[in-house]
Write a structure and sequence with these properties.
By secondary structure, the chain is mainly beta. Helices cover 0% and strands 44% of the residues. Pfam families: WD40.
Amino acid sequence: MSKRPVSPPTGGALIKRAKSSSNDDTREIAISSNNDVRKKSLIRSVPRTSGLDAPIVSLAGAHSGEIFSCRFSPSGHHLAACSSDRSLSLWNTYRPNTNFGLITNIAKAPLLDFQWSLFQPWIYTVSADHVLSVVDTTTGERVRKIRAHAGIVNALDRTMAAGGAGAELVVTGSDDGTVKVWEGSADDGVGKYPVRTIDVGCPVTGVCWSKDGQNVYVAALDNEIHVYDLRNTSTTPTSSSSIPHTLPLLSLQGHTDTPTSLSLSPDGNFLLSPSLSSTVLIHDIRPFSPSPTRVHRVLRGAPAGFENTLLRGAWTKDEEAHGGKPGQRVAVGGADRMVCVWDVESAKVVYKLPGHKGTVTSVDFHPREPILLTGSKDGTMLLGELEPGIAV
């Protein structure tokens, strides 16, 4: 009496087929047919869209605290992150994804935000001990340290000076209710004293330059985004402060809670601002807007949570990498430990990306390829590929 043959498995099995060619741009996934794993049939070939070693790359081990900000370098070959452990980490974007630098002597309090310099191998950082610092990424040494504000410095941004002067301008915003503009120096980073001080009147959570470097956008605790023209010197005297209150050119409304950060579109026409109300707004900042409120899009899907974290969003930068014009997509992390990527024109969610174990605090798009960088309160970062274009 012969034994009864073994029953075949109830469902199909996913099997990765060995590549038959030397082309590194594809990955093949085979699904077995007829409930037999030995009979493999190729269903489809999944194209790779970037130069990453894998579709998803985890960057961990450098920080022991929450990551507050992470950004690609202007070239895209490197990236950096700042953390509550008071350190700044430097990484290679491509293989090997090594952490080639960990700078720990920048400040005595958590580093809250940073920006890469546009023409020097420097990084500007701001911290909770009221300090603006300049770090040389080639040597790992701090070039400059300035007691910039009387309160916690939440955000900064940099641009090239208007008129082709060749100087780099840095703007910082603080809990002391002021925004300060600093002029870059080729010798020691930035000047000792600010070239312009703007009294907003309430704590500042985000700052951003206009594309021409003449206006500064300021997100404040009064739920509004104020626009200041640096050429305008209109002020009102105040009795409680030695700094006269600067009058904004205009104020962008629409938020019902504090905006957490600001990000300018690549063409300079739109402004992205997440908020503590779990609503992300895109304002139209062109001189003549078709909307009286200047609210271009209202995006939902990224909960802010109860921790009052300053979430930082980003725009796509390259036209070819994302299958359309620059600024076609925006991304913001959330307290649900996921990242939302929207199509700007349709305001629809294109991606809802998991992977982190804590609130996703910061995101950034690669300047040349469809790669999304995310940083989280779990102290890790993720690099992930996106498809160049998706119909929505």
